Amino acid sequence: MPATPARPQLLIFDVNETLLDLGKLQLAINQEFKSETAFKQWFALLLQYSLVDTVTGNYHNFGQIGDGALDMLAQGLGQPARPAPRKKELLALIAELPPHPDIIPGLTALQQAGFRMITLTNSPDATVQKQMAYAGLTGFFEQLLSIDALRRYKPHPDTYHSACERLRVAPAQAMLVAAHGWDTAGAQLAGLQAAFIARPGQQTYPLAPAPTLTGPTLPHIARQLLGK
């Protein structure tokens, strides 16, 4: 069994799918486009074109890209583009998502153990504030950070470094907690530790370093951090 890594001074949590269950949004998009794969296609487009914006310096916030991705999804499925009010209704659901069942127990254990915790999300500032309030998670976090001010999306190294600088913690003393292999890869390649929550359907990137910690739920990660 590998040695337990040094206790991180800061835990940086991804939000969408890591903390929050996207099931409500997934169901709505799949029903809207009458396809069981519509949500996965839309989310892949959202991530792909956030990276296009980052690489080209042509920044739009996550909501704007999500709106454009709905148009691209409709086109790809051979369907008409949805009216702006309907797209707004669908996208508004991202601020009304519950936490995964494991999240409050896991965050509670980590908070009681004295860990400093923040969020770092690709969603805009206003969105993450609404998300955390709706999910009842705000009180667990020292700060709710977004990449919006930086105008670069994760997994750009600057996103992780900026969060560490803001909290005055060296990258090696910080750990990203995420359910996305691209996110844990980005954090580790930026010099951070990473914990991967292996939610169903999620995989790590085999060409990146293996996550520092891996577990099926946040309590599993918490127990490893606490040496239990």
UniProtKB/TrEMBL annotation:
Assigned keywords, A-Z = Hydrolase
Q: What top-level branch of life does the organism fall under?
A: Bacteria
The GO terms this record gives for MF are: hydrolase activity, acting on acid halide bonds, in C-halide compounds
Xref: Pfam families: Hydrolase (PF00702)
Hydrolase is among the record's keywords: yes
Family label: Belongs to the HAD-like hydrolase superfamily. S-2-haloalkanoic acid dehalogenase family.
Q: What is the name of the protein in this document?
A: Haloacid dehalogenase type II
Q: Which organism is this entry from?
A: Hymenobacter nivis
Upper lineage is: Bacteria, Pseudomonadati, Bacteroidota, Cytophagia, Cytophagales
